[in-house]
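Q: How would the structure tokens look for this protein?
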Amino acid sequence: MLYVIGTPIGNLSDLSKRAVETLSSVDIVFAEDTRTALNLLNSQGIKKPCKSYYKDNEKTASESIIACLLNGNNVALISEAGMPCISDPGAVVIKKIIQKGLPFEIIQGPTALIHGLIASGFSGGSFYFHGFLPHKEKEKIKEIKTLLNIKAPVIFYESPYRVKETLNILLDYFHAPIAVTREATKVYEETIFIISKEDIENITVKGEFVITVNNSLEDINETNNSLSLNYDHIIKELLSENISSKDILKMMKTLGMKRNEAYNLINKLSM
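A: Here is the predicted structure in token form.
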């Protein structure tokens, strides 16, 4: 039997009793990061052989798992943190196992995306999980544009090396505020809400990030209606006071306008 096991995303106390019992009973553990896996097993007094199962060796490692199962072994599959298959390796072997009609069992564990969604306070109905965006800026922007028609909260994962760039781009295309959760379940966990470019510069660039944008049509309409904003009137008044277009753009972003919409409206009314 293959056991797909969720592991803590930061707080070791989140490892379930069922996960510990299952890890204790299997013959071998396949892990995204064997060093992290051994630390986890040692913390529970579990001694099991570990083999690698990561993105670049999924195909060959999947064959090794299948071979173990056919030889009558019980196998555990774990990610470095969280649930396998959720922005982590695992889908390749699951697909092969289904095709071969072999049994597998899922041992639930923490997932950062749900943690981030709850921490955002955005709509708890439907949502869309996108995971990681491309590394290159042009590809990232192209992918973000395909998500604009999803009228629900959209959740991303991001590394500390690219989080500021990603937030700057997201702020150009989605309504503020953008919820940013870092170090989920850890001692220094925090969720902050990004409204302006200045907010992005002030974030602590450490740990893994969950970014949630609120593209829910209901919430956007509710915000706009409750504020009863007449953007045309506000911009005209600001322009009449000789306030620079750059400063007006910042103000309109703070009021919830998308950057591109505000930019185009300011240019239109400036003529």
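The longest helix spans residues 58-70.

The beta strands are 2-5, 28-31, 50-52, 75-78, 104-107, 128-132, 153-158, 178-182, 190-194, 209-214.

Upvote if useful.
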